[in-house]
Design a protein that fits this description.
The protein is α/β, with parallel strands linked by helices. 46% of the residues lie in helices and 17% in strands. The longest helix has 25 residues, at 592-616. The model is unreliable at 887-894 (pLDDT under 50).
């Protein structure tokens, strides 16, 4: 029989797939002997069964009852017992952390009878009714579907009538009245009363938490974080401990190190006389964790010991939730903590120095996306004036955008391409779509462990929390600070590294990490940590990293960034600007002599382009792709030409002969689907002299560089091959031109000839094509288009968002390689190509070559190199190193 419920004493850290991250870690802390309130976990299998059938699986209720009876025996009291009630919490706990995305219900077991018993046994009427109103509010909104704004409104009106700033100043009588108000709101809102049966409260809470796995905000978060929809969530049922019992009680969140910078801890927030939800919700501003040393020195000392135990045991930054109940410390949760990119590099380096992890494990714990964020610009310190407000630097970086004050407006404006900053008093899980859309998040309340801070750090968003100088007026859609009123739509700048909020757009400067890649100069701190990770990656990686570069400037930059050659030099970019007229002349040529004159004019220009690129990459391979796009792309737009001619005729100016010839050529070359038309190798085979001109320019550039003492290593790549016959014909022409230039110059010129694999047929017939190709390079942009039947320029805007929403895509196939389809073609071509030609060099030059999530696949598929834009070269180097360490134990830090 399937076991659906595990006591904390039965689980282990490595059971996270079954018990969820929270449940597995509660079990692990219990095994370590830390003070964990007892409880049990309902497995992810139980959740999946419930979501599939809409009913609890057979046997689950009996298992829950048995474990509940065990809790009751150990506590010496029963759930909801009138004179001394056992109270429970029900919390979600998925395999991967999803902070605030699913439901929690606390204080289960309180009723009109048991609240009086709790008041008597605790000696505090206020505590009892505070706990009861929390249960009714959570249960009413989470389980019964009452609009949470109704509860918030009632609480706000009560505080206003009593003239108090927060709920802490409400007395027992106030809270008892609030309980009655809440019960009326439930009865009027859903037509049934708040349940007075503790068993019903528990049963319905469990079902609600299971159902919250498929809530809109949870699904959005999973899409954003690429978490699978079919995992389900575990549920942890735990004996309540209370941080709202008075000034000697409280709740907090602690990190073993600063999750924003990586500095050693302890670090976090504490709120006295509060339950844990108050800390993350940001309803009252917390105090720094170090203040706990003054408020409760013995609890602080024990917490320090437990933090050290956990970091040593997990060998990583740990995120802990704790409660102090009248001087007794309880550990409620731990997990490997989310951290910013800066903190990830710093912590990995420091843990390696401390001997807790190996250098390879340190490399496995940083990532390319994080490195890319560190390369983003920051604010220019010399141009920063006095800030409007300062808050807590919750997630670093620099962002500029227009201020917006609600989630819907953030999404609406961002959809039009506008950069926005979401400004709130505090955020809730319902604000997630707006946080995703925004460049930065600013709150006037909350600490570094509030919902806004935790979620923003996980997404790599700039965030400032607890900026108390901001008087945020949501109804009027504005905030006021230092006598300045900022209306919605006004540009502000947010510095997540200092916590400053500025009016207007502050200029940006390059990051210190970018400067390191530009100059190679290392220094202490973050740059040293990045340098060490890059050094280790370069040591262990098998794949080379090349760059896609079309100019000497881009080639030189790529080399500074560590590129080991050029994997794609697009020659069509060399035909733009002033040279377009020469291409027009070639296209409009009426005779062979006219065409040859146009090609001869292009030849020296192309040659000099190649000379500069080969010089910048001296000693390294430069893969030059012959002309790929259809020729009509070098001509004026068809409609624009027709309008110009019609306007000239309407004004009696007459049509110029040149425009008429151009329009005739455009009409002649018009194709319904030009991306699948006369382009690439097809164009080279039917346009006389075009391949010969380009190859001659390459060969003569090689000669010039050799005569200058250089070591040019040009490679010639033929695009859009469908059949081996196409490649054979072009290769014969290439070799003839190379031989002619070599003989004329008296300098040997040899250039490997290979092809792009960018059509499904080419991948499926790779065993034939490899007989004529000395290398393959996967053009995954076109391979994705032709495999899926997508026109990228059309479909991304048309329906990709709907496909992502419906779960058809987890991520765009143009962003991350489609392993099952496109990836399968890659694997076939690699295997068959190398079977036909031993040692066949194979790389990828599509945009996937710089995508961290795709690089691991290319490593596993056996590619020799990836090629990407110059600015992605460091990212690709890092990820190629991480891919070589596949199987290294690395903690999840999403």
């Amino acid at each position: 029989m399937v076991q659906y419920v595990y006591a904390f004493t039965e689980g282990r850290r490595d059971m996270a797939d079954l018990l969820g991250g929270k449940g597995a870690n509660l079990a692990e802390m219990t095994r370590l002997g830390l003070p964990v309130p007892p409880g049990f976990t309902l497995t992810t299998e139980a959740c999946r069964a419930y979501l599939t059938t809409g009913a609890e699986p057979d046997g689950l209720a009996a298992e829950i009852a048995a474990h509940l009876a065990g809790l009751e025996r150990a506590a010496g009291r029963r759930l909801g017992q009138a004179d001394d009630p056992l109270l429970l919490s029900v919390r979600s706990g998925a395999r991967f952390s999803m902070p605030g995305m699913m439901e929690t219900v606390l204080d289960i077991g309180l009723t009109d009878d048991s609240v009086r018993g709790l008041a008597k046994v605790s000696g505090s009427d206020r505590f009892a009714y505070d706990s009861y109103r929390r249960l009714i509010q959570m249960f009413g909104s989470t389980v019964m579907g009452v609009d949470p704004a109704l509860f918030e409104g009632a609480l706000s009106r009560l505080k206003e009538s009593r003239g108090v700033p927060d709920d802490l100043h409400l007395d027992a009588a106030d809270l008892a009245r609030l309980v009655e108000t809440y019960k009326v709101l439930i009865r009027e809102g859903v037509g049934e009363p708040f349940p007075q049966d503790p068993a019903e409260q528990l049963r319905r809470s469990i079902r609600a938490v299971f159902a919250s796995w498929n809530s809109e905000r949870a699904r959005l978060y999973r899409r954003r974080e690429h978490i699978a929809d079919d995992l389900g969530t575990a549920i942890n049922v735990q004996r309540m401990v209370f941080g709202n019992l008075g000034p000697d009680s409280g709740s907090g969140v602690a990190f073993t190190r600063d999750p924003a910078t990586g500095r050693p801890g302890p670090y976090g927030d504490y709120l006295s006389n509060a339950q844990g939800e108050d800390v993350v919700a940001g309803i009252r501003n917390t105090v720094p964790l170090t203040e706990l040393q003054r408020l409760a020195p013995s609890s602080y000392a024990r917490l320090r010991e437990h933090l050290e135990t956990l970091e040593t045991h997990y060998r990583d930054l740990c995120d802990i939730e704790f409660t102090i109940e009248r001087g007794t410390l309880w550990m409620l949760q731990t997990r490997v903590g989310k951290r910013t990119a800066e903190a990830a590099f710093a912590i990995a380096a420091e843990l390696a120095d401390e001997g807790l992890i190996t250098p390879d494990e340190a490399l496995a714990r940083v990532g390319g996306e994080g490195l890319a964020r560190l390369m983003f610009p920051r604010f220019d310190a010399t141009a920063v004036g006095e800030a409007l407000a300062h808050g807590l630097p919750a997630s670093p970086g620099a962002a500029v955008g227009t201020a917006v004050f609600d989630c819907a407006e953030a999404v609406r404006r961002a959809a039009t391409g506008e950069a926005v900053v979401l400004v709130r008093q505090e955020t809730t899980p319902d604000d997630l779509p707006g946080m995703v859309a925004a460049q930065a998040v600013v709150t006037s309340r909350g600490g570094k462990t509030s919902h806004a801070a935790v979620v923003a750090r996980g997404m790599g968003k700039v965030c400032v929390c607890g900026a108390e100088q901001l008087d945020v007026d949501l109804s009027k859609r504005r905030f006021t600070a230092r006598g300045v009123t900022v209306e919605e739509g006004t540009v502000i700048s947010v510095d997540g590294s200092t916590g400053a909020v500025h009016a207007g757009a502050v200029p940006l400067v390059d990051s210190v990490v970018m400067r390191y890649f530009e100059t190679g100069e290392s220094s202490a701190g973050l740059v040293d940590a990045v340098a060490r990770a890059m050094g280790r990656a370069d040591t262990v990686r098998r794949m080379e990293v090349r760059a896609n570069a079309d100019t000497p400037e881009d080639a030189a930059r790529a080399r500074r960034f560590g590129a080991q050659g050029i994997g794609l030099c697009r020659t069509e970019h060399m035909f733009l600007g002033d040279r377009r007229q020469l291409v027009e002349a070639m296209i409009l040529a009426r005779t062979d002599e006219d065409r040859e004159r146009a090609l001869e004019a292009l030849l020296p220009l192309q040659r000099q382009d190649f000379v500069g690129i080969l010089e910048a990459m001296d000693g390294l391979p430069v893969t030059i792709r012959l002309l790929d796009p259809p020729l009509h792309e070098f001509l004026p737009d068809r409609t624009e030409l027709a309008v110009r001619i019609a306007a000239a005729e309407a004004h009696g100016d007459g049509t110029s002969e040149h425009d008429a010839e151009l329009l005739d050529a455009v009409n002649r070359m018009h194709e319904e689907n030009p991306m699948l038309g006369l382009r690439g190798v097809r164009l080279g085979l039917v346009a006389p002299g075009l391949v010969a001109m380009q190859v001659r320019a390459i060969a003569e550039a090689v000669v010039e560089r050799k005569r200058a003492g250089g070591d040019p290593r040009a490679e010639i790549m033929v695009p859009l091959i469908d059949t081996v016959e196409e490649l054979r014909l072009v290769r014969e022409e290439v070799e003839q031109v190379l031989a002619e230039v070599s003989a004329a110059a008296g300098v040997p010129v040899t250039c490997p000839v290979g092809t792009m694999i960018e059509l499904p047929r080419a991948a499926l017939t790779a065993r034939h094509i490899a007989r004529e190709a000395e290398f393959f390079s996967f053009g995954t942009n076109d391979l994705t288009q032709t495999t899926w039947g997508f026109s990228r320029d059309d479909v991304e805007a048309a329906f990709f968002s709907a496909y992502l929403d419906k779960g058809i895509f987890k991520v765009s196939p143009f962003e991350t390689i489609d392993r099952e389809g496109v990836g399968r073609l890659v694997e076939i071509a690699v295997a068959e190509g190398r079977a036909a030609r031993a040692g066949l060099k194979i790389g990828v030059c599509g945009e996937h070559g710089g995508d961290p999530a795709s690089i691991g696949f290319f490593h596993a598929a056996g590619l020799d190199y990836v090629s990407c834009s110059p600015f992605r070269v460091p990212v690709a180097r890092l990820e190629a190193g991480r891919a070589a360490l596949a199987g290294t134990d690395t903690s999840d830090t999403r």
